[in-house]
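Exercise 7. Predict the joint structure of the components listed below.
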Amino acid sequence: MGLIDELERLEGEARALIAEADTAEKIEAARVALLGRKGSLTGMMHMMGKVSPEERPALGKRANELRRLIEGLLQQSASAVRADAMRSLMASEAVDVTLPGIRPALGHQHLISAIIEEMEDVFCGMGYTVEPGRQVETTYYNFTALNAPEDHPSRSARDTFYVVDDAAGTADHAEKHARGESDILLRTQTSGQQVHALERGELPIYMISPGTVYRPDTPDACHLPQFNQVEGLVVDEGITFGDLKGTLDTFIRAMFGQDRKTRYRPHFFPFTEPSCEVDVSCNVCHGEGCSFCKHTGWIEILGCGMVDPNVLEMSGVDSEKYTGFAFGIGVERVAALRYDLPDLRALMTGDMRFLAQF
Amino acid sequence: MRVSYKWLKTMVDVPEDPQELVAELIRTGTEVEGVDTVGQSFDHVVTGQVLTKEPHPDSDHMWVTTVDVGAANLGKDGSPEPLTIVCGAQNFNAGDHIVVAMVGAELPGGVKIKKAKLRGVPSCGMNCSARELGLGSDHSGIMILPEDAPVGVPFAQYADLADTVLDCEITPNRPDCLSMIGIAREVGAILDRDTHVELPAVRAESGAPAADAVTVEIADESLCDRYVMRVVRDVHVGPSPDWMVERLAAAGVRSINNVVDITNYVMMLTGQPLHAFDMAAFEADENGQRHVVVRAAQEGEKFTTLDGKERVLAAGMGLITDNGRPVALAGVMGGLNSEIEDDSTDVLIESACFNAGRTSHTSRDLDLISEASLRFERQVDIDGCVQVADITAALIEELAGGAVAPGYVEVYPRPVEPAAIRLRLERVDAICGAAIDPDFTRRSLARLGCAVEDAGEGVLAVTAPTFRPDLVREIDLIEEILRLWGMDRVTATIPAAKNHVGGLTPEQTLTRKIGRILRACGLNETTTYGFAAPGDLEKIGMSEEGRGVPVRLMRPLVAEQSEMRRSLLPGLLESVNYNEDHGNANIQLYEVGTLFIGRPGKSQPKERQSVAAVMAGAWGDVTCNQKFHPLRFFDGKGIVEELLAQLRVEKVRFRPCDPESYGFLQPGRAAEVLAGGTVLGWVGEIHPKARDAYGIKLPVTAFELDLEALLRAARPQGAYRAFSPYPAVEVDLAIVVDESVTCETLEQRLRSAGGKLLSDVRLFDVYRDEERVGAGKKSMAFSLTYRADDHTLTSAEVEKVHSKLVAKVCRAVGGEVRS
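Solution:
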C-alpha cells in the first residue's frame, strides 16, 4: 500500500473521528490525534522524506489538502459545538418573562407636599422666593395687621385656635381669656406672612409662602382642623390688577392645564382692595355646567386682590409709590379637585394604600 | 339676602330673564347662591265656579257641590267635566268663583289632596280657604274670588303668585345690599339704569307729641350710636295685606300680624332693623311718660326673648330697658314681655343704630343670630334712622289704622359726617391696569349714591353716602369702578420683577433633597397632625428634656389634641397603629414637620423642623423572585447612614443610647446619631412597652433627626478625587475579641494601624461559637484592601504593612487572629 493510499485511508479515519467529536474536549483530542506532534497526519508528513522525488509533489499536495480539510472540519465541528452549547445555555436560562420583576422599593411623596412643590416651581420660575413662616402667631400678624376689625367673628375662639400665652402680663386679658381668646394663636391663614415680608422692608417683594394653618373644624370629608395654604405677595412699583390677572392665569394654567379658562369675580377680603375670587373653568363639562361644578361651569379656586394701602402703610411701605397684589390658595382644595378625593381625612392617616397611589 | 324679582321689578327695570341679572350680579361681586321659583307649589290648584250646592244627605253641616274647573278636568270623552266636592264651609253659594285643589295637589301646609269618601259621598278635591293656601290666617270660609275670575286657570297664574327669588350672598362690606332699596341701587349701577322707589309718608300726626309719651337715654354709648323712637297710638292689630305677606314670604319671613310684619317689611325694604314695643308693657310715671334706657347687661342677668327662651346674659351685652327691666336684647331680639299682641293699641317704634361689634358678640355668644343682628353687625345706615322710623309709622298708619304722634324722640350723641374722598382718575387706571373712561367713573359712582364733583385736573371730589361705610378712601372707590367696569375686561400682564432674584434657598433645596433620598430609600412621605395629646411623650417614655414645655390650646376640639407636638414620633406611631388595624402589614413612613418647643415665660414657642421615620413589617410581600426580611434596627440605621452619606455629613458616629434618656427605645437596639460632636437625633427600635401604648404588634424601627442640625452638618460637593490606577491587594483578617469591643473601635484601630496604604475596611462576618471562639468572645472578619496611589504594591510591601497592623490591632483591643 502506497502512501497515497495511506492518506486516502487517513481522510476516512479523520472524517469519522471528527464526526464523532461532539464536545470541545473530543474535538481537541481529535485535533491532537490528527494534527498534533504525534498525530497521524503529522507522522505521515514526516514520512514524506522517504518518498521518491518524483512522487513527492503529488503526495505533498495531497497531504496538505488533507491537512486543510481536517482543519476545516475541526473548525466546523468546533463552531457547531459552540452553537450547541450556546443554544442549550439559552434554553436553560430562559424564564417566564411575565414573572414579577425584582423591584426596588421606592417611596412616594405625599400629594400635598408634591402639589406645594409644584406650585413653588411655577412661582420660582417667575422669579419668586419661598418664605414659610411660623405657625404659632400673634393676633397682630394673623388679624390686626391684615385689617381685620377688633371684633370680627373670625377672631372668636369658634373660628380660631388660641394658645395659652405664657408671657408675663397676660392677666390683662382676663375678659378675652374667659372667651377662650389670647394674643397668641395657631395661624388661621398664611396671610400673616405678607406682613412679615413687608416689615422686612426689602422691596420689591415677589414671594410665596406655603404652610400649615389651623381652624377649629371637626374633621369630616370636606374639612380638616389642619390644612395648607399657599400665600402669594408681590409689591413693586407700578403693579396693576392686570399683573395680578396675568400672574394667576399663568399659575392656574400651569397647575390645571393650558386649556383652562379663568374668571375673576369681585369679592371682599379685609386686606386686599380691589379683591376677587378666581374661578377656573370646569374640567368635567368644560363650562357647560354639570354636577361637579354645581351647574355653573366654574370652580372656585382662590382668593386674591390688590394689597390694601393700609396693609402697606402699617408695615411702613409707601403706598403711593408701591402697589401690589396678594393671593391665597388652599392646597387641599387643589388636591381634592385634581384627584377627586372623596374624604380629606385620608390625607392625615398615613394609610399606605393611600400614599402609594401618588 | 333673598330678593323677590317681582318686588325688585317695581324699583328698577330688570331683564325679563332673571338669569341675565344673575350673571351681571356675579360679574360685579354679588354671589347668587340659588334661584328659586316660588308659587309653583300650587300644582293642581285651579280657579273654579260652584255649579250646584246640595246639603249632604248624611250630615247637617256639609255640602255636596259640583264645581266647574273648565278644561282642568276632562271627562272620558275629552270634554270638560265638573268635579264633585264635599265641602264643610258655609260662606258660599252656587255661582261663586272659588279656588279648587284637585286630586294630586299639595297645599302649603303639606296637605295632600286625594280621592276620598266623606260620609259615603265621594269627593274629588277641596274648595280652599285662604289659610289652606298659605295666604293668610282667614279660615272663616272658602276663598271667594271676584265674579269676573276666569274658570279653570292655574291659581298661581291667576293670582300672579309666581315669583323668582334670588338668594344673594352679600359680602360683609356691603350692609347696604341687605335691603331691597340697596339691591335696586346696586342693580341700577350695574345696568346703568334709574331706580324708582316710592316711600310712604305719614299723612297726619295727631295726639300728644312722642316726646310726652317716652324719653330715651343711652347709658352706655359704646352700645348704641343713635336711638330714635316714634309713637303710634290706637293701632288695630290684625292680619297684613296679601301683597305684604307675599313679599315677606319671598324674603323668607313668616307673617305674624300687621304691626310686626310692617317692621320686618321695612327692614327688608331699607336694611334698617326695627322693633315695635307694646307701649302698655312699659311702666308709666306719674305723667304717663315711659323711660327707655339702653344699657349693658350685668353678668348673669336673665331675659326671655321673643322665641320664649330664657337667656342668661354676660356682662356688656346690650339691653333696652324699661325702668331697669329688660324689654329687648339690643339689636338681636325683642322680649316676650313687650311684644305686640292682638290687643295691643299703642306702639313704640325703635329705629336705632347699635354698635356693630357689640351686637355681633352678643348674638354669637348667645348663639342667637337674627335678621336684625346680621344687619347691625355689618353696620346700618346711621343717617337713615329717622326716615325709616317715619316709613314705619306711615305704614302702620295706613295698614293698621294708627294715629301717629307728632315728632320723634332721639338720642344721637355724635352725628356722623359723610366721607369726602379725593379720587384721582390717573390712579384709577394705575391700579386697574386699564384705561377707564372718566365718564363711566362719574356715572357709576353717582348711581351708587355718591355725590361727584370735578375738583381740578383729573380729580373728582366724591362724597360717599352714609349707607356705604366701606367707602372711605380712594382705593374703596377704585374697587367700585373696577368691579362695575369689569375685571374680565382688564388685559392680563406679567410683572417684570426688575431687580429681583427668586428661587429656592440652599436650605430649601437641601430639604427637598432629603425627601428625595428618603423616598429613594423606600420611605413614603406622610403628614400627621401638629396637635398632640397631653402626656404623649411620657406615655411612650420619651424624655421631655430639650423639648421645652408644651404649647397648650385654650379650646381644643378634642382632649387628645389639646397641645402641640414636641416630637413627630407619637403621630407616626398612631399611623403605624392605623395601618396595622387596616391590614397593611408593611409600613415605611417618613414625615418632615414642625415641632413646637414652648418656652416658659415666652408667648411663642420655638418652631423646630424635624424629620422622622417609622418602619414595620418588611419592604414588601414575598414574591417568587423576592424575599424580604423583617425591618429591624439595621434597616433604619442603613437609611440614616445613606442619608448622611448623600448629604456628605462628616464624622458620623452612632453611639449606644443611654436607656435612662431614651426610655422609648429598646435598650441595645438604639443609637444616637452624631456628626462630629453634634447629636443630630436617634435611630432605634421602639421599646415594646412604648409599642403597647399604641397597640402596635409588630416591631417598629424609627428615627428622628433635627432638620436644622442636619442642614448645618451637610457639606457641599467637594472637588473630584482621582482614584489609584494600580491594582489592589485584598487580605482577609478575622480577629477574636471580647464581646465588649465594638465594631466601631475595631474599625478605627484597623484604619489607624493600616496607614495610607489601607484604602478600605469591610466587615463581612461576625461569628460566635463558645467552643471554637470562646465564651464572651466573637470573631470579627474583615476584608482589608491595600492599594498605593503611585505604584503596584509588591507582596513584600503588603506583608510588611499587614503584619504590623495585625500586631498593633491585636495589642490594642486584646484580640487575637483567628486562623
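Discussion. DSSP finds 21 helices and 39 strands in chain B.
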